[in-house]
Amino acid sequence: MPAPNTLLLFAAAALALLVVPGPAVVYVVTRSASQGRTAGLVSVLGLHTGSIVHVAAAVTGLSAVLLASATAFEVVKLVGAAYLVWLGLVRLAGRGRADTGEAVPASLRRIYRDGIVVAVLNPKTALFFVAFLPQFVDPSRGPVALQVLVLGLCFIALGLLSDGTYAVVAGSVARRLRGRGRRQWGRRVSGVVFVALGAVAAVAHRPATT
Fold first, then answer.
1. What confidence tens digit (pLDDT) does each residue in 74-130 have?
2. Residue 8 domain-assigned (yes or no)
3. Is residue 16 situated within a structural domain?
4. SS3 for 99?
């Protein structure tokens, strides 16, 4: 098990990284702003269900294998980027509009599923677990896999708290501003955001290996 002071230091560092807006935060805020607080919170659950996959991969060493392979990294990176761009284009095209001209809200199941996919296909999340988390692992404290698991679960708990806060705040603000014209504007903004996230993911670099 990690030492208590190590766990506290990791929690502080992870929280500092989580609260800085990044792809996950933008995804959550976009969902909350477009469909409300509940949709935002469901997207948070989806994202951190996807984080469990990264924790499992880190425990078994699969993340290290992924980042050691240029081909595997590029495939995951490009698939994730393509998915984000596709989500953005769907929003921009207004697919799913009803006859009233309003966008049909995505189901909570779909929002949850999209959150999982966005998290799993985000190479930056794998970079975190391979490049950052191991700095807090001390082989003298016991099995490395157990320490990685504990730190990973700590990261997920903090992520739920941080991203959940963003979802609640964004959903509350959006509810006060909601109107037909603003909904259409919000749909376009969210579309651009998803396309931009896809572009950022597409240019992510694999860290140099030694």
1. 666 676 667 667 777 776 776 544 433 445 567 888 889 888 887 887 766 777 777
2. no
3. no
4. coil
In three-state secondary structure terms, 90 is helix
Identify the residue whose tokens are 């392979």. 69
Beta bridge partners of 103: 97
Q: Report pTM.
A: 0.68
Q: How many domains does the chain have?
A: 1
Print the domain residue range for 76: 23-202
Q: Report the distance separating Cα 184 and Cα 92, nearest Å.
A: 10
- Both tokens assigned to 206: 């694999």
Residue 3 φ/ψ, nearest 5 degrees? -65, 150
Tokens 């006060």 belong to residue: 176
**Amino acid identity of 2?**
P
- The verdict on residue 115 lying in a domain is yes
Sign of CA dihedral 160, 164, 165, 166: positive
Question: Does the residue 54 lie in any domain?
Answer: yes
Among 198, 171, 151, smallest CA distance to 15 is for 151
